[in-house]
Amino acid sequence: MRFIQLSLILLFSLSIQAQAQELNIRLELADVCSKRASTENQMQCVGEASAACMKENEGGETTVGMSGCTSLELDFWDSKLNGAYSSLIKIEKADDEDAKKLNYSPPLKAPALKEMQRKWINYRDARCQYEVSQWGGGTGSGPAFMSCMMSETARQYFVLQNQIGQRK
User: Model's pTM, two decimal places?
Assistant: First the structure.
């Protein structure tokens, strides 16, 4: 059953990608909001660009349109997350090297970050699969899955970005 569910989501995702190429999305809405938001309010920015996309594009409020708009914003947050991870892993590797030079042997930070990120991916996937299960196989499961992926990816971006901010 899980295989069938994942196969349907994959097929749905492929049709979303085709639709998303035709959609206009103002990602600057999410970007500007996230730069202005306080740490406590960062998540309020997630979904802002995709919500505008749904309203502003013909067919944006259909199931495929909603998923397409959300997919585009997911790509934005995923790119931000990858950038934050790259920056943070460099910081952690440098800290590990500094500790090694000082003959200090605390737990290594870079491998811990890498392991945390791997486990987060598993958590995100399971979390979003659970969200899909709430829709009982209905058409809302596709947009719910994309929305979950977008939200969880943005949340992890903020976790890593806030960690970087604390290190400066």
Answer: 0.84
